[in-house]
Write a structure and sequence with these properties.
This protein is α+β, with helices and mostly antiparallel strands. 35% of the residues lie in helices and 16% in strands. It contains 22 helices and 21 strands. Keywords: ATP-binding, Hydrolase, Nucleotide-binding.
Length: 592
């Protein structure tokens, strides 16, 4: 039940009536009668100790992001919602979302604790899970969050890519083990194991990320203001069509133009998958109701803002899994030259002068360092010739709503940032001219020269340098040919680097993509989006007829990929760890 979303469900309600027992053997009926975390007062032992008003009204929440390569325990804080509402002097003070901070007293050192490897690696050694993996995170949380706040602090473990690949029975054992550990060794609030310790879908992860970046960028103020304006118009003239009143006429074409989006689109790329999420207009949402992910934001005044998102995750399209598929394709289709009894294949996606051996066979890849050729080869990985059951499709035969991204700004995290900034130093606003120019130079630079230039950069290892050319090509390909950012760059629906640069010069274009690592000095993590929705549950409804529970998402049917993803999805599985500057050195090192 943890890894398969049902069509159109609120996950809080999963199987709530099927059994009287929860995962931890507790009575579900009793659990439903328990006080919610926001109704629990701080520990009475120190409740009356002299403390500031700010401290007394501070609230905390914990999200554990359990990925395939590591787990991150994240601590968030905010002012108690009921206190904020009571102390507000102006009605407009509550016309916004709760303010969430990172860590305790906005101290970044208290924000997160990371531990490797990922929780999914304990599938065959669950007995070691508590001591090796969970204990360090719990100790960090116990010493960081004030003790008298523990029992009113909710904790959630949300597992992602690595856990999705495990057998469901193993998933259940790991999650239950983790839940029991935190229940036994802390007072942190866990209503029940099923909703607090779970595997989330790629679509949920993408939607959380969308909420996170938009919250950090604008606090959703443009969306809040638009909602207020439309609400006023509806109240004054309910019979009018709001959308007909707000459309814009393009002065050049005399046609109705799409309004500038009031939110940012979200792109995330990891080692195994890539995700896209963006807000749909009402008309597009109606046309694509089966693909819509629905969520609601809740303002402090209790008003809800319903949002329709398109969210899709593409397994096999993260950088490392794409590299694995690329090497597999390269060794099958490329002509080879036999030297020193080893079949050698030229690889334009490796730096010039490097030689690596493929893990799965005896092929040797010889770097030829040509970005343009690399882009042409990796573009086949998009599988755009696959049958499209429902038009239109962009990648792998997956249906995609007809959307004009021209007026939408996108923010990209994870590999969108790393591949742009770690070596090329071009993170931030997307400048295609500069990116292609620097990537071309990097790919063509001799391997030994590149190593000398970058190996002493903090956080950069040899493997990262070796894969930079491929990652740059993949980023360009997935952005423009994959998701169709700037379709004007295409010639006859084919992405050609030179043609794209020529077309770009003709355009009066302002970049609509930015790679980000932090926003306003805060980490752009999907976990922030998750805690925002959790805090929303504590906001009282505007009417007694409404529930104050805000379910995270109503999900569409999960999209599936035919590509099999290895468990080690954040490891470059296409080559040996060792690489060589000449073929003879490689041959001498490998026994015949």
């Amino acid at each position: 039940m943890f890894n398969k979303p049902k069509p159109s469900f609120y996950y809080h309600d999963l199987e709530i009536n099927r059994s009287t027992k929860d995962n931890n053997g507790g009575n579900k009926r009793q659990n439903r009668d328990l006080a919610k975390w926001w109704e629990i007062e701080q520990d009475s032992v120190v409740k009356n100790a002299p403390k500031s008003s700010d401290d007394n009204n501070a609230r905390y929440g914990i999200i554990i992001d359990s990925g395939s390569s590591q787990s991150r325990l994240m601590i968030y804080s905010w002012t108690d919602v009921s206190y904020t509402i009571k102390s507000s002097k102006l009605t407009n003070d509550l016309n916004k979302l709760p303010e969430i901070n990172l860590g305790v007293n906005q101290d970044k050192t208290t924000f997160s604790h990371r531990i490797s490897p990922g929780i999914s690696t304990y599938g065959d050694k669950i007995s070691s899970l508590n001591l090796e993996h969970l204990t360090p995170m719990l100790e960090f949380a116990l010493k960081t969050i004030p003790k008298h706040k523990h029992k009113q602090t909710p904790i959630y473990l949300m597992a992602t890519a690595g856990m999705r690949l495990l057998d469901i029975q193993i998933q259940n054992k790991i999650l239950l083990k983790a839940c029991e550990f935190f229940k036994k060794n802390s007072k942190f609030y866990i209503e029940n194991c099923k909703t607090h310790f779970r595997v989330i879908t790629g679509e949920e992860e993408g939607a959380y990320g969308w909420i996170s970046v938009n919250y950090l960028k604008t606090g959703f103020l443009p969306l809040i203001n638009t909602t207020n304006e439309l609400s006023e118009i509806n109240q004054n003239s309910p019979e009018k069509n709001i959308y007909s009143e707000t459309k814009i006429i393009d002065s050049n074409t005399k046609k109705i133009a799409e309004p500038i989006s009031d939110t940012f689109g979200f792109l995330d790329m990891g080692g195994a998958s890539t995700q896209i999420a963006f807000k749909l207009s009402s008309d597009i949402s109606a046309e694509h109701s089966e693909e819509v992910t629905k969520t609601k934001l809740k303002k402090l005044n209790g008003d809800e803002i319903p949002i329709d998102l398109f969210v899709s995750t593409f397994l096999g399209y993260g950088t490392n899994e794409a590299r694995r598929r690329y090497v597999e394709l390269l060794t099958k289709e490329s002509p080879e030259v036999t030297t020193f009894e080893y079949p050698v294949i030229a690889d334009p996606c490796l730096p010039s002068g490097v030689f690596v051996q493929v893990k799965s066979n005896n092929y040797v890849l010889m770097g030829s360092g040509n970005l343009d050729h690399c882009i042409k080869q990796v573009s086949t990985l998009l599988n755009k010739k696959k049958t499209c059951v429902k038009l239109p499709c962009l990648i792998d035969g997956v249906h995609f709503p007809t959307t004009n991204f021209k007026n939408m700004q996108f923010l990209g995290v994870s590999e969108y940032w790393y591949a742009s900034n770690d070596i090329l130093k071009l993170g931030g606003m997307w400048d295609m001219f500069k990116f292609i120019s620097k990537a071309r130079d990097f790919c063509a630079t001799n391997w030994e020269t590149s190593k000398i230039q970058h190996i002493n950069t903090p956080g950069i290892i040899e493997d990262r340098i070796r894969l930079q050319c491929f990652k740059a090509a993949w980023l360009i390909t997935i952005l423009h040919e994959g998701f169709g950012i700037l379709p004007e760059l295409f010639t006859d629906s084919v992405f050609d680097v030179e043609a794209a640069l020529v077309n770009l010069k003709k355009m009066n274009h302002k970049p609509n993509f930015h790679s980000v690592d932090t926003i306003e000095s805060k980490e752009a993590s999907w976990t922030l989006g998750a805690i925002i929705l959790k805090v929303s549950e504590s906001i009282p409804p505007t009417s007694i007829t409404k529930s104050n529970r805000v379910s995270d998402f109503i999900l569409p049917r999960a999209l599936k990929s035919l590509h099999k993803v290895d468990d080690e999805d954040l490891i470059d599985s296409s080559v040996w760890v060792l690489s060589y500057s000449d073929l003879e050195s490689l041959v001498r090192s490998v026994p015949l």
